[in-house]
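Bench notes, afternoon.
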Amino acid sequence: MSETARTCYVAVHIGAGYHSLHKEKAYKAVIKQACIAAMDQLRQGRSANDAVEHAIRVMEDAPITNAGIGSNLNRLGLVECDAAIMCSDPDAFGAVGATS
């Protein structure tokens, strides 16, 4: 295991908006799965960018979150998502908005 993997910290958030208290355990389970997925990548010596991508996949695949499968609907009743990711080395940033 690399020194980076032993000393890093992963944090995710479940998304913006109201989160029902009766779904708190489910939210926490998804957050935990996302953090574990990211840490697994780091422990394998992969980049922070890879770790972020894996955490995002877990969040997007969970219907309880307002990302990916569980996205909030727009005024027309359609799923519409925004996403962004950045990497400090090299200085790179990518984003999409209002994708369906």
